[in-house]
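User: quick one, fold this
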Amino acid sequence: MEPVTILLVDDETSVMLVLQHALIDAGFEVRTVSDGRKAIQYLGAADSPTHGLITDIRLGDGPDGWEVARAAREIHPEMPVVYTSGDSVADWASKGVPNSLMLQKPFALAQLITAISQLLNEGAMVTSAKGQLHKW
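Assistant:
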């Protein structure tokens, strides 16, 4: 059985490491990049199988998480996308790709694992009591 590979994009190293370890502990193979340009390059590489994308919105200079997700969907139209952000939740309805999820920071690591797992399984999403997990 092929491992499920997730591309994790975050420009904050400490955040990326915490999320990466949680995803690995949940059984995922994780590739990490710290900016939008590298993420788009990785997604476009023919030898880089990627089954899902988790991206922060604000990634410094260059493409942001919205642009990374749009590029991912151009390459892989059905790719599950989970956005993470502390301040961009209100923009998700207009800038997010269809059938994506938004997690508002701070969130529990279990929410991240649930979000990407359920998108990968094409299951129904459950919104948290605080409304931090949203499905479009």
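User: anything notable?
Assistant: The chain has one domain: 5-135.
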